Amino acid sequence: MKLKTIKITPIAFRDPPLLNAAGIHEPFALRTIIELESDNGTIGLGETYGDAPVIELLEALRPALAGLDPFDLNGLRTRVRAVVSSTRISGNTEYLLAPGTDPKKNLQKLYSALEVALLDMQARYLGIPLVTLLGGAVRDAVPFSAYLFFKYARHIDTGPDYPDDPWGEAVTAEQLVAQAATMIGRYGFQSIKLKGGVLEPDVEVECIEALRSRFPDMPLRIDPNGNWSLQTALDMGKKLDGHLEYYEDPSPTMEDMAELHRATGLPLATNMVVTDLEQFRKNVHVNGAQIILSDHHYWGGLRDTQLLARMCEVFGLGLSMHSNSHLGISLMAMTHLAASVPTLSYACDTHYPWLADDEELLVGGRIPFENGAVRISDAPGLGVEIDQDVLARLHRQYQTCGIRTRDDSAQMRKYQPDWSGKPPRF
Ligand code: GKR
Ligand code: MG
Predict the structure, then answer these.
(1) For residue range 68-78, what is the model confidence (pLDDT) as tens digits?
(2) Is 18 in the pocket of ligand 1 (CB under 6 A)?
(3) Domain locations in the chain?
(4) Which fold has domain 133-375?
(5) 322: annotated active-site residue
């Protein structure tokens, strides 16, 4: 079997005005959809970041992929390495809250984008679910958490044709609890993550307390994305003690996290200070984070994330899973991966509930959650097909939306012209 066609389609989908440490989500989030076809008609699908530098790299890689044996992942790695080291990217921007935008991870993210699509192709060719190729399912359904965001009711700069999202405003504890109740009612999630670092820290602690009284048995997490100074994180840690399953990236540096853990004993999780092997090694020495949030999009694909899981086990670290705004192909890749990893013992993050119903590009629409979990079917590969009409619509939206690289801080300056987005703000 040889790779014959490689289709790379940038898309944009509507994203609600979600608030975070850097600023606010723009009206459209970007992704890239990868469709491979082999000379015997087997397909392979992938989804990755949609920022301009990633698309430039994918386009540079495309000619080198023709004729590749889909089982030759070392061949893929060699080709990706050659392209990454020889391609000059025009807009190498890094957006701190999305680790995948770091240009130092170009090799990992480019390899991952193609590795997922090739593994999907391999599994479809063999007629087995992707998880079987990854070593077999240790669970047949993967639990995700309700990912709550503070948010405004609507975007500032969209025209009359841009529909309001159904979630409404959430800038008070009462509104946030209502958001949680809706999300849990709709999808059955059994744990909650709150994206923090947005309102005054004491207000966010009150929100966690309000969630605790409304959902007494749910594991809770808060993630201020490094927007709290060490002192603030210590003060809030005392108030949050007893409420949290883990405390995610309260402060911006590994050293601050280590100090916080020494002082409070709270379990700290990260997708900001441990995002590559060098940081992993350093973390083992300083004990900054005790739980690593994996993400195959920047950890170098499904197999390298399985390796990360083994390393976490070796060094006694916990493992969870991070997400950025994404569609169903990524959700299924995350699900097959998580189903194959025995030590992934926390409910995974997903932004999927924030996706509008009419913007899932899979045949059959949105992937269903049962009791907060996504089930793996017997279908070969990732088990999903693309609805080409929706893909074409989302590509047209990409062409007209005007966004080429995610920038939540620039978007926030439309609301607050003096906004810097530089952490820690509190
Ligand atoms: O989508 O606003 C967001 C998140 O803040 C995202 O950018 C982060 O990467 O979800 C992420 C996290 O857990 O830090
Ligand atoms: Mg995080």
Answers:
(1) 999 999 999 99
(2) yes
(3) 3-127+388-401, 133-375
(4) TIM Barrel (3.20.20)
(5) yes
